[in-house]
Amino acid sequence: MNAPWSAGRTGQREPFIAFVCDDNTAEALRPIAIEQGWAGEKVNKGGLRNAVQTLSVSASPNILFVDLSESGDPLNDINALAEVCEPGTVVIATGQVNDVRLYRDLLASGIQDYLLKPLNPDMMRESFVQAQAMLNAPKLSEDVPDHPHCSLAVIGTRGGVGASTVATSLAWLLSAKGGRTTGLLDLDVHFGTGALSLDLEPGRGLTDAIENPGRIDGLFIERAMVRASDKLAILSAEAPINSPMMSDGSAFFQLQEELRGAFECTVIDMPRAMIVQHPHLASDVQVAVVVTELTLAAARDTIRILSWFKSNAPQTRVILVANRVHPAAQLEISRKDFEGSIEHKVDYVVPFDQKLAAQAAKLGKPLAEAGKNAKTVAPLAHLAEHVVQASEESGGETAAGGKKGGKGGSLLDRLGSLRPKKAQPAKA
């Protein structure tokens, strides 16, 4: 059940009001509130009952902190509070009952967080940061876009080829340069770097979605995504590595559906294992950007992934990007030989630029933003334009099939032809 406070946006209201039951809670909360820039006198006594009485005759704040310690039926009382709260209020509750079921039920009712007494300063700070991030979350557009939705997935043929770098750069280019509202979905729930590349905290939205797929809707997307700019938001995670995420893929599929309704463009940073475990995720992707490097191992995996798209998602337009490409003399395989082995042309070549990559990491910016005028970024800008054009085209052949009429032979036969030429790479 969704409480009314989660249905709208904030207006010109008090940024923060608290209603607590005892002096100890007030004394613990007041200095943390002041740290956030809020007035200490906004911490009131009276708990939930006083909150309901006060807010029934006055505007509710952007962030409401309420003490449930004196409540005999917290869930029922929270619903009473919801009736007097205006849309857009983020509610944080505290109490003495340490019960997982109550915690889950309270979150399901629409509150942002439930903190156990005695209050821990660090947990309060974290909860307030998340609450403010929610207030800044992207609002779903009610306007009909002037152009078709652009949906793309970025897949690396191997780890370390820079697929996440390409994904964040494309998302930034589509939003900042293309002027389109863009949602970035990082599906590497344990080791994703999308939020890190944007200098953001990933939040808990993606892990919540995986654990509770039934809660995913437009409102969930609005609240869970973390805003990077007015037109760019990200949904990612840093799940504990001792906690495997068990999912049948329904959460990921539903997230794609809701993102299409919330944004004009969606960029999915999709680990290659996802197409093995959840092949249906590629069914609604208009464009797949396959990122590779010019090596023997990457050639093998590029052949396999292109073949997979041809068989499993023939409607998807595939664009092949060679990333982090060193000067010709340093290549393991030349571009010409690489293309010959995979029987598919490389659409874009992004040069390796260690200095720019380091600068982008230090600034916490996507590569495309950190090097706006660099020659290294030019192929990424052209790629973004290509992606939009490809998504707008109806029908037409998918590029996953590669060149027609190419030579046959097994995968190993095609790879084997590269080995004698590896020491003498042609100019890329």
Explain the layout of strands and helices.
Blueprint: E1 16-20, H1 23-35, E2 43-45, H2 47-55, E3 63-67, H3 74-84, E4 90-95, H4 100-109, E5 113-116, H5 121-135, E6 150-156, H6 163-177, E7 182-186, H7 194-197, H8 205-211, H9 218-224, E8 226-227, E9 232-235, H10 250-262, E10 265-269, H11 272-277, E11 287-292, H12 296-312, E12 317-325, H13 335-342, E13 348-351, H14 354-363, H15 367-370, H16 378-392, H17 411-416
Helix pairs in contact: 2-3, 3-4, 6-16
Please, could you describe this protein's structure?
Residues 1-11, 140-145, 394-412 and 414-428 have low confidence and may be disordered. The longest helix has 17 residues, at 296-312. The protein is an alpha/beta fold. The chain is elongated, with a radius of gyration of 25 Å. An eight-stranded mixed sheet has the order 8-9-7-10-6-11-12-13, sandwiched between helices. It has helices spanning 23-35, 47-55, 74-84, 100-109, 121-135, 163-177, 194-197, 205-211, 218-224, 250-262, 272-277, 296-312, 335-342, 354-363, 367-370, 378-392, 411-416; strands at residues 16-20, 43-45, 63-67, 90-95, 113-116, 150-156, 182-186, 226-227, 232-235, 265-269, 287-292, 317-325, 348-351. Helix content is 40%, strand content 15%. It has two domains: 4-135, Rossmann fold (3-Layer(aba) Sandwich); 150-421, Rossmann fold, CATH 3.40.50.300. Keywords: ATP-binding, Nucleotide-binding. InterPro entries: CheY-like_superfamily, P-loop_NTPase, ParA/MinD_ATPase. Residues 419-428 have a biased composition (Basic residues).
Biggest sheet features: 8 strands, mixed
The rough form would be described as elongated
CATH topology-level fold name of the largest domain = Rossmann fold
Question: Which ranges are low-confidence, i.e. pLDDT below 50, for 5 or more consecutive residues?
Answer: 1-11, 140-145, 394-412, 414-428
Ends apart, CA distance between termini: 57 Å
Based on the coordinates given, report the CATH architecture of the largest domain.
3-Layer(aba) Sandwich
Specify the CATH class of the largest domain. Answer: Alpha Beta
Strand arrangement within the widest β-sheet reads 8-9-7-10-6-11-12-13
SS class: alpha/beta
Give the oligomer, counting copies of the same chain as homo and different chains as hetero.
single chain
Using only C-alpha atoms, the radius of gyration works out to 25 Å
The arrangement of helices and strands along the chain is EHEHEHEHEHEHEHHHEEHEHEHEHEHHHH
User: What is the tally of beta strands?
Assistant: 13
Number of domains: 2
Organism: Stakelama saccharophila
Keywords: ATP-binding, Nucleotide-binding
Protein name: P-loop NTPase
InterPro entries: CheY-like_superfamily, P-loop_NTPase, ParA/MinD_ATPase
